[in-house]
Amino acid sequence: IEQINEWIASYQDYLVAGIREALPSASAEKPIEVTPLYANLGFEENTTESATPTNWTCNSSAFKARANVGEVWNASFDAHVTLEGLPAGAYRITAHALSRSGSNAENYAQEGANVTAELYANNAFVKVKSQHLGVGTEKLYDNDDNVIGDEENPLWGPNSMEGARVYFDVEDTPYFSEVVGNVVSEGDPLVVGVRDLGVDGEVTPDSWTIWSDVRVYYLGVSSNALYEEMQGMIAEAEAKAETSQVTAATDKLEKAATAAK
Predict the structure, then answer these.
(1) Helix axes 244-260, 223-240, angle to 10 degrees
(2) What is the pTM of this model?
(3) Which side of the chain, N or C, has fewer Cβ within a 10 Å radius?
(4) pLDDT along the chain (261 residues), means of 10
(5) What is the 3-state secondary structure (H, E, C) of 64-108?
(6) Could you tell me which residues are beta bridge partners of residue 121?
(7) 21 by DSSP, 3-state: which?
(8) 3-state helix, strand, coil in the chain (%, to 5)
(9) What's the farthest any 2 CA atoms get from each other in the chain?
């Protein structure tokens, strides 16, 4: 067993070195996956339940991981990982994720219109897919309940951590999301996460968000993408305050943005 562990560690070192060496050649057409540089992005370590999955930080006690998925039920939250040591440029983040606003029946009736959960990467974000998209007459996981409650015409869908795992693994699952975020300067962190801040910090009672299989791909340096990111940072800073310090900082950032373009 000790020898096997040494082989695994040696392979991991070899893989990390290969990724680092390949990063300068990355482009949108030929991205380099950097997921293996960081542990447990997709809850690979969490087959049994944990309230503190490796590398993940969350501001809600309702956060937990099991069955290689992470979830939060009935609470607003921000769960994320902070990825350090990456080069400047654009990163595509993909994940399997679903959310419902309120109960299964409420969310189904609304066709997910009130879902507020997001997959995000630094300042970029996208709404995750609504649970109702996978609800249908076929029962994929035996232990999940009829999500609508009509005994004569039952509809089935993900309604547990184990059930969501099954639906995530289906080919052409409807619960795939992706977002592209930017690291403006080398050494800056890339914060990747899932959050549901609800409306004014409050989520609809019985809301549920669950996700897994987070993967990160480096797309290289896109001057236009970095310029747009910087412009967004400028607008955000200007909206917050009109002090001399803010003005000086935004002037400096404006010059950097123009240079990037």
Answers:
(1) 170
(2) 0.82
(3) N
(4) 57 72 92 95 97 97 98 98 95 98 94 97 97 93 78 90 96 97 92 96 96 97 58 60 55 54 53
(5) EEECCEEEEECCCEEEEEEECCCCCEEEEEEEEEEEECCCHHHHH
(6) 124, 192
(7) helix
(8) 30, 30, 40
(9) 67
